[in-house]
Design goal:
The structure is a single chain. The protein is α+β, with helices and mostly antiparallel strands. It has helices at 3-28, 33-70, 75-103, 124-145, 174-178, 265-292, 331-335, 340-359, and strands at residues 114-120, 148-156, 162-170, 183-189, 200-210, 224-229, 245-250, 255-259, 308-313, 318-321, 326-328. A hairpin with a 5-residue loop joins β2 (148-156) and β3. The longest helix has 38 residues, at 33-70.
């Protein structure tokens, strides 16, 4: 028995047994309604794990046969078996890794849509311009991924920058791919208004929140204070003749959300409540994560909004993610959304590696 089977044989056997039970239950026709739906969902979740376990068992059996042939008296068969043995042995670690990844606890929010919030930080107008560029970077990236990007609220500076901007991103695995973007993004470059050609450092904060459904977070109307006002454009000028903009304050937490993108007060309130629900859901997730991770802080996914995670150095044409020490010398492609996948994939891989190490 291999070391892998000694350590994980019992949970793998439980998965296989449960998968067979569910398959028989669904085939019996005795389930209906919620019971059928629940069993179907569990079956779908276990199916890739069970398939990987079955593949590993077949590979183990094949390896055993090859080893027996290689040790046999038939010299010709032994030589053929030796040729295949190396490839068969090299395949085992990848199969084992696939199974461990499938066994890792799932983040229930991974498949959810996301609320993106970008805010200018230190650096005045240059920070606001960078915030607008980041917002546009995510818009382009969403388009490349085939996601829907809907701007919910933008507070402009009048010079093309954003004090803050909020969007909903809808699609497959949006939160899974964007959740590690939360944190402080720093930019180093020469502002257009800099006469001496000196490099300035500015920053913007990004928050990516899983979009919460009403079943995830219930909001009591008595906990809300709703204020309405006229929408403001860049420079503070009124762009609407009616009080359609909405500011919602959640009294128990002090969270404030406003939305003025729509001409309808009702639609603005609905969008503001969507963002509020996401923030409350994120608050609960953060508390739960802090309790679970009290003994181990993940390098990638600490979720600390004040943590500097990435630097965009325009004079050198580089983007550096400080959590994984990855530098790409293709800043134009990153800002265009085209090369952002390289950072996203590396962050996901690092997170998986950390969680695998904790599992083992």
């Amino acid at each position: 028995m291999s070391d892998f089977e000694q350590r994980f044989g019992e949970p793998l056997a439980r998965v296989s047994t449960r998968f067979d039970e569910l398959r028989d239950m669904l085939a019996s026709g005795n389930l209906s309604g919620d019971a059928f739906v629940k069993a179907s969902q569990e079956y779908a979740e276990l199916e890739p794990v069970a398939a990987a376990i079955a593949e590993l068992r077949r590979a183990r059996a094949e390896l055993g046969e090859l080893e027996a042939m290689a040790a046999g008296d038939d010299a010709e068969m032994a030589a053929l078996a030796e040729e295949e043995l190396d490839a068969s042995r090299r395949r085992m670690p990848e199969l084992e890794r696939r199974i461990l990844l499938a066994l890792l606890p799932k983040d229930e929010a991974d498949e959810k849509n996301a609320i993106l919030e970008v805010r200018a930080g230190t650096g005045g107008e240059e920070a606001a311009l960078f915030a607008a560029e980041l917002f546009d970077m995510y818009r382009r990236y969403a388009g490349i991924q085939g996601w829907r990007f809907e701007t919910m609220d933008v507070n402009e500076t009048g010079l093309g920058g954003f004090k803050e901007a909020t969007a909903t991103i809808t699609g497959r695995n949006v939160f899974r791919r964007l959740k590690f973007e939360s944190g402080v993004h720093r930019v180093q470059r020469v502002p257009e208004t800099e006469a001496q050609g000196r490099i300035h450092t500015s920053a913007a904060t990004v928050a990516v929140l899983p979009e919460a459904e009403e079943v995830d977070i219930a909001i009591d109307e008595k906990d809300l204070r709703v204020d309405v006002f006229r929408s403001q454009g860049s420079g503070g000028q009124s762009v609407n003749t009616t009080d359609s903009a909405v500011r919602v304050t959640h009294l128990p937490t002090g969270i404030v959300v406003q939305c003025q993108d729509e001409k309808s007060q009702h639609k603005n309130k609905a969008k503001a409540l969507k963002v509020l629900r996401a923030r409350l859901y994120d608050l609960e997730r953060t508390r739960a994560d802090a309790e679970r991770a009290a003994d181990r802080k993940s390098q990638v996914g600490s979720g600390d909004r004040s943590e500097r995670i990435r630097t965009y150095n325009f004079p050198q044409g580089r983007v550096t993610d400080h959590r994984i020490n990855l530098t790409l010398y293709k800043i134009d492609k990153v800002m265009a959304g085209e090369a952002l996948d390289e950072l996203v994939d590396a962050l996901i891989a690092q997170d998986e590696a950390e969680r695998l190490a904790a599992l083992q």
